[in-house]
């Protein structure tokens, strides 16, 4: 199953197979590590990432925003996840440090769960898209300080949602 492939299941004797639990502290720890690694990666990538990659990310961003304006958030969620994954992956590649990607991918199942919580349960689709847009624009401007700040903000906002009750966000996107 897809959950098993993503490392999200655990087997317990005499109970069965369950979705692995994720504590708030584990989520925060992953965000801290991501912030360190991804800020490093984007600072290295800002001057090496190809213009065609940046333009492709901007085009995909515009398409997702256009879809979100005419379709319910639930039906656009997978495109947001895809854009987020592509953006981060392109930054890792452009950083020319294979250990950044390898390290981050080693906890990809946790990142996926944080992403789902952030966008689905905390209703941060529009805020997440805005953060990604700022990251991409900082890359386009070849501004390392702006790029690092945008990446740190993006990850810090995910971390902040970890400890907040889900119902706090039910009216945010309206």
Rg of Cα set? 17 Å
Described by the principal axes of the CA atoms, the overall outline is: globular
Mean pLDDT value: 85
Order of helices and strands: HEEHHHHHHH
- Fraction in helix: over 70%
Portion of residues in beta strands equals: under 5%
Distance between the termini: 35 Å
Strand pairing plus helix content: what structural class? mainly alpha
Helical segment tally? Answer: 8
E-strand count:
2
Largest sheet: 2 strands, antiparallel
Provide the spatial order of strands within the biggest beta sheet.
1-2
Structure, described:
By secondary structure, this protein is mainly α. The protein is 72% helix and 5% strand. The protein is built from eight helices and two strands. It has helices at residues 2-5, 24-45, 51-70, 73-94, 98-105, 108-121, 125-140, 144-162; strands spanning 9-12, 16-19. It has a two-stranded antiparallel ribbon. Strand 1 and strand 2 (16-19) form a beta hairpin. Helix 2 (24-45) crosses helix 4 (73-94).
SSE topology:
Blueprint: H1 2-5, E1 9-12, E2 16-19, H2 24-45, H3 51-70, H4 73-94, H5 98-105, H6 108-121, H7 125-140, H8 144-162
Antiparallel strand pairs: 1-2
Helix pairs in contact: 2-4, 2-8, 3-4, 3-7, 4-7, 7-8
Short description:
This protein has 174 residues and is mainly alpha-helical. The protein is built from eight helices and two strands, in the order H-E-E-H-H-H-H-H-H-H.
């Amino acid at each position: 199953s897809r959950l098993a492939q993503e490392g999200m299941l655990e087997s317990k004797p005499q109970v069965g197979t369950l979705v692995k639990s994720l504590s708030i502290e584990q989520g925060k720890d992953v965000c801290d590590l991501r912030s360190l690694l991804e800020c490093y990666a984007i600072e290295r990538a800002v001057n090496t990432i190809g213009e065609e990659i940046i333009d492709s990310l901007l085009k995909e961003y515009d398409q997702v925003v256009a879809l979100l304006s005419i379709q319910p958030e639930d039906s656009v969620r997978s495109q947001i996840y895809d854009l987020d994954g592509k953006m981060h992956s392109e930054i890792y590649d452009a950083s020319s440090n294979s250990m950044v990607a390898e390290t981050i991918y080693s906890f990809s199942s946790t990142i996926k769960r944080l992403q789902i919580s952030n966008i689905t349960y905390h209703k941060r689709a529009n805020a997440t898209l805005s953060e990604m847009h700022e990251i991409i624009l900082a890359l386009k401007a070849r501004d390392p300080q702006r790029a690092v700040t945008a990446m740190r903000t993006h990850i810090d906002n995910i971390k902040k949602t970890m400890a907040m009750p889900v119902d706090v966000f039910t009216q945010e996107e309206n």
